[in-house]
Amino acid sequence: MAGAGKGVGTIRLIPMTESEFEAYLEIAIPEYAADKAAAGDWSADEALERSSKDYHGLLPQGVDTENNYLFRVQIEESGEKIGMIWMKHEAPRKHGFIFDISLDASQRGKGYGKQTMLALEEKARELGLETIGLHVFAKNAVAMKLYAGLGYEVTSQNMTKRIG
User: Fold this and answer.
1) 15 vs 46, 86, 112, 135, CA distance in Å?
2) Among 25, 81, 98, 162, which residue carries the largest CB count within 10 Å?
């Protein structure tokens, strides 16, 4: 659990249920496909199939996939679910990688993103992890600012120039 920030409550991370996981995939797979196509990594024709393959390959046992931690983000005081976060422990290293974080649009700008990240850091420490990594698309300036403010540093960078 993370302390209250600008928002109206305290964030708590609750392990995702199987039904929450299925609902998550229905949204996450097309969103990831759209992001990859927009970034120029995949063609629009292949993006949905490749996204589905990636998700099912990374999480073959769903919420029970070893070393993967999928949480719903919930406001403790009201019990309102406002998003989700997924981290994988990249064993045997003491490193976690955040594959996805998503907060409801109506809850953004209230400090819940920062609280969610801090709550995940607590979970990572409980798992004995020493570092956490993530990927953020360059077009997501708000997220990049949040992560930099929390101490995340750029460790590599891809660049593309459209020439035609």
Assistant:
1) 32, 10, 18, 22
2) 98
